[in-house]
Every structure is written in C-alpha cells, then in structure tokens.
Design the sequence.
C-alpha cells in the first residue's frame, strides 16, 4: 500500500531508542528523509548510522535537549536548510520519573512540564510556518494512555500529558485551514526502557517481583501481551500518511485494548 510519504521530510524527536527510534525507522522504510534528535550523542548517531545503512535513507541527526527552546529552533532551521522542507514532526520527549504525588518536588513538576508540554510548544512554533508555506503538514505528539486513564505512580505524566492533548486540539482547530493535521498517539504498556523503570518503582513500593508486575500488565490487556514499539511507530506513520487525510485533533491509543472507557 502506497502511504504517499516518499521523499517527505520527517522529524522525530527523542529518536535514539524505544518508540522514537522505531518511528524514525518506519518513516525511513517509507522512503522519507529523516531528522533525528536525542540527548545522548553516541546512542543517537549509532541509531542514525544503522537507519542510513539499512534503508539507504537520508538521515540528519543532532544531539540536544528538547527542553532548550533555542536548540529546538536551531535544529528545525537546520533540518529545513538540509532537506529544503519539513513535512512531518513527531514530538516526543520521554517520560518523567515514576513517583507518587507527595514524593514529587516542585522541581520534578517544572521538569515534567518542560519535558512533556513545553517541548511540544517549542517544536510546534518552529515547524508550523514551514508547513503553512507548503499548505501541508503533520504534527503528531507521542504521549501515553495516561491522557485517558491515569496510571498509578505516574502522577507527573498523568498531569503534564493531559495538557498536551489540549494543545493538540487547539492546534488542530487553528491550523486545519492550512492543511496541517495535528494528532496525538497514546501508547499503552509497551516494551521499552521506560516500562522497566515503572516496573522497578512498582516493585519497590509493593514488594512484588518485577516479572510478576510485567505479567500483570499483560494480563490486563485484552490482547494479553505488552505492545511492541514498532506497533506504535506504524500507527504514527499511518497518521502522517495520505491514508489518514481526514483525521485531526484526535488521540489514538495503541494499548492492546487496555483503556476501559468508551
């Protein structure tokens, strides 16, 4: 199936590992030119090199912190100069630490807002003018099932990521007239390093072995397993494609049916 993405420029933030990396790979497999960023220089460039070789793709990679608005601005400008355009932006910033409310400091709250909400503002401000000039664009935020169903020990994520959904709805309403679609993808319990961190926190607070916690999460999902990062990535690529050209302002959960609401 032709997704209509060949030669599009796809920027994927926090893409050195996990879901971000799988997303960069999935866009490269569709023939996109890919821009990658993350904080760890060595891991990022190793991932970029592998994608170049595996998919014969054009890849631009730069290491920086997405909470630095100036760095985001410089990166987006350099991507546009390098590739001549910018069509797709996947906003991703990793998750805040797993903690209960009383264990969170005010600094934890500030960092969570910078990482998960303000980074989305920074990227959107920079990429939208490029998309307006082409009258075509896709902005996809990567959050969590926590936007629909709060998760124990993830109060920082539960709160900060909900703000991202409000931003997505607002941007979709304002910029739909410019041909820009804005959506959110919320993974459920997906096999990543982030999930290992949560399992460790749950184990410490409950006394249960981490393996038992993983098994419980799998049992809670109707599909009886954890998600794979690639499954989230394929959903993101679909939302960016011409196959999803009348979808905007939505949150799509990739959670194996774990969300219990209607």
Sequence:
């Amino acid at each position: 199936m032709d997704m209509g993405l060949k030669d599009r420029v796809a920027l994927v933030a926090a893409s050195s590992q996990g879901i971000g990396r799988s997303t960069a790979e999935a866009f490269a497999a569709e023939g996109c030119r890919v821009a990658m960023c993350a904080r760890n220089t060595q891991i990022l460039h190793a991932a970029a090199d592998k994608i170049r070789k595996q998919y014969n793709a054009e890849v631009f990679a730069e290491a920086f912190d997405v909470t630095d608005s100036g760095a985001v601005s410089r990166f987006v400008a350099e991507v546009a100069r390098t590739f001549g355009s910018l069509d797709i932006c996947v906003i991703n910033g990793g998750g805040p630490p797993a903690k209960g409310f009383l264990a969170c400091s005010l600094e934890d709250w500030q960092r969570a807002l910078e990482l998960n909400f303000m980074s989305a503002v920074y990227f959107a401000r920079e990429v939208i003018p490029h998309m307006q000039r082409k009258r075509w664009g896709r902005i996809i935020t990567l959050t969590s099932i926590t936007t629909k169903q709060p998760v124990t020990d993830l109060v920082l994520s539960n709160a900060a990521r909900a703000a991202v959904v409000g931003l997505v709805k607002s941007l979709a309403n304002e910029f739909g007239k410019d041909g820009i679609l804005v959506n959110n993808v919320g993974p459920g319990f997906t096999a990543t390093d982030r999930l290992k961190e949560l399992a460790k926190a749950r184990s410490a607070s409950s006394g249960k072995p981490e393996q038992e916690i993983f098994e419980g999460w799998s049992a809670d999902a109707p599909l009886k397993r954890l998600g794979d990062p690639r499954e989230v990535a394929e959903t993101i690529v679909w939302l960016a494609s011409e196959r999803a050209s009348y979808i905007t302002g939505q949150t799509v959960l990739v959670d194996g049916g774990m969300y219990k609401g209607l």
